[in-house]
Amino acid sequence: MPEGIPPGLVLVDKPAGISSFGAISRLRPTYGKKLGHAGTLDPFATGLLLVLTGRATRLAPYLVGADKTYEATIQFGVHSTTEDPEGELTATGKQTSEQAVCAALPQLTGEINQIPPAASAIHIDGERAYRRFRRGETVTVPTRRVAVNAFTLMHFDFNSQQATVTVRCGSGTYIRSLARDLGELVETGAYLTQLRRTEVGSFSVSAASAPDLIAAAPAGALAWLPSRAAVAGLEQRTLTSDERAVVGHGGRIAVDLGGDDDVALLDVAGELIAVARVEAGVAVPKIVLVPA
Predict the structure, then answer these.
(1) Which fold does the domain 234-288 belong to in CATH?
(2) SS3 113
(3) Where are the domains of the chain?
(4) What is the spatial distance between Cα 267 and Cα 277, in angstroms, rounded to a whole number?
(5) Do 148 and 112 contact (CB within 8 A), yes or no?
(6) Same topology for domains 68-200 and 234-288, yes or no?
């Protein structure tokens, strides 16, 4: 990682047509090779990628489970083998209405059972499902329980048989599968033509920038946040100078905090030094970002 840039979080607005890893790799000349992420996007999708830099890559577990918000376009009257534009398309010749779509949405809202796409990154017998799918194998992906907090119809065009929707959901939800299942409920078939992730937890794509723009700017100058932003949901504790030295070496300190939750330990300037587990009034460092 370039000298002088502390570990942190880069908000990337991924364009369509490249993989998430392709977008992340464009940051390496600026931020170094040690980069991580908190959830990928399919190549056809756009929107917010949370990219962690340097030692902050170890903070990914505090971000991957966050709720996400998407804007999507669904095409009715067509089946896709991958449930998105990259699959083989078959027209059904059937049409639906705005009323039918609105009536079906509640059935796909809340805690629901979902079968992820066969062309997904889920492991089946130790191998990614999409690799088996591409070889022409029959792929059976286990049903999973997911949370769809909101599934809202924003616009429906009868002539094109397209709907624009927004989805707020928990981690692990496939928007492609929501489109497929919505098509089954209205008995026309459907697939996802466009997908944009607009929010991950409290982070918004409005604060993000394209990977090429980020890479062209000095490190930390564009769409970058300090590592404490990744653990903003944790209780915070400011360290004294003596405590800072102890924690920087991985040592334990006494804290006056209730419960046994994780705590973010910051120095007097607000820089995240470590994340610790509180055990009976003692903070035990789990992740030290800035060694002594």
Answers:
(1) 2.30.130
(2) strand
(3) 8-66+202-229, 68-200, 234-288
(4) 17
(5) yes
(6) no
Give 192-249 pLDDT, tens digit per residue. Answer: 999 999 999 999 999 999 999 999 999 989 999 999 999 999 999 999 999 999 999 9
pLDDT digits (tens, 9 = 90+) for 240-272: 999 999 999 999 999 987 667 899 999 999 999
Active site residues per annotation: 42
According to CATH, the topology of domain 8-66+202-229 is: Pseudouridine synthase (3.30.2350)
Q: Please tell me the pTM assigned to this model.
A: 0.90
Question: What is the C-alpha to C-alpha distance for residues 41 and 253, in angstroms, rounded to an integer?
Answer: 40
CATH architecture of the region 68-200: 2-Layer Sandwich (3.30)
**C-alpha closest to that of 179 among 148, 210, 142, 201:** 148
Check residue 106 and report its DSSP letter.
G
Residue owning tokens 């022409």:
136
